[in-house]
Amino acid sequence: MEKTPENRELVILNAIAQALNREVDLDQALQATLEKSAELLGLHSGWIWLLDDETGDPYLAAVLNLPPALADHPRRMAGTCYCLDTFRAGDMEGAANVNVITCSRLQWLSGDTRGLKYHASIPLYAHGKKSGVMNVASPDWRELSGEDLRLLYTVGDMLSIAIERARLFARSVELGASEERNRLAREIHDTLAQGLAGISLQLEAAELLLQNGADSRRVQALLQRTLDLAQTNLEEARRSVLDLRAASLEGKTLPEALEKLVQEYVLGSRTEIKFESVGGNRRLPVRIETGLYRVAQEALANIVQHSAARHASLDLELTPSLARLRVKDDGTGFDPGRLPRGRYGLTGIQERVKLLKGDLRIQSEVGVGTEIDATVPIIPRLGSRGGKA
User: Fold this and answer.
1) What is the CATH topology of the domain spanning 248-377?
2) pTM of the entire structure?
3) What is the Cα–Cα distance from 13 to 20, expressed in whole angstroms?
4) What topology does CATH give the domain 5-172?
5) Given 186, 282, 356, 372, which residue has the most CB atoms within 10 angstroms?
6) Where along the chain do its domains lie?
7) Rg (CA), the chain
8) CA pair distance 321, 378, nearest whole angstrom
């Protein structure tokens, strides 16, 4: 049976609808839509901008096959551009409608753009509220037909609904996490508080035995029971706190929390520390935010306590698929092959990055300084996602 234009549209929309229905996670839904749209419309590259729910600031949420001129330079995909400016300003004659425009990020770029110059800009709305913009492009760009533009507009509507659904799901998960934190707080009070009270009573009893000249073996046995009780409570505390979000992240995005952390360390040390973030104040999974915050915390503590550095920097780079944290100083440095005594923070950093299934690189030279570079995946590594960005 020969495929009519109507049949072709139904096939494409059905494929995208199935991809969106399989995904509750927002990152995966965005990636699936990009890949299906490109595959079925014969396009090559694409990216999706979303507006932050709270601030309205845009952030890069998904990419597919970015050319090297952009993929190798994430900063070029940060900040605003023509289509974002017109979309946020409500210019319905510009990039806010499904339209083909010259890409302001690619127009004057030197380097390998793989022939990309134009893209189609698809606005994303949910219940009349601006959600973001999807851009799709191809090096052998052809003028899109009215049928193609209508199809992209429908894809944009479907994606907008999926974005809203994913955000509602994320809020419900966050509410569940809040309830779980309250449960853990009650559990800590019921177990740890009672355990500490038991330790206190045991120590008071041991003190009385010593004052009354009791046999040392009785005192020793009592102290051993106290030690066992303390160890049990320590294990209970560790189990509980592993499930809790870092308090410093409550109500803040990771960049905001890191900026505050740097300010605190600057006030308490002679080291000048600069912080820079690329990729916007996007929300990340709690385990990633907490893990990277702790990595930064331990790295900065090492700098202030051990390095005697005059200058240091903390850089966070967020892309749709990766989070990269780099901490650098000009301090005393060390031999990476021989971990210095007392530098347990470096071991903690290695363990945290490993738990996040990330990659860690530590470079240091005596008298020169140290650089810690941690990269962790934000979405599962399910094959190529189209470049480094």
Assistant:
1) Heat Shock Protein 90 (3.30.565)
2) 0.60
3) 10
4) Beta-Lactamase (3.30.450)
5) 372
6) 5-172, 174-241, 248-377
7) 27
8) 5
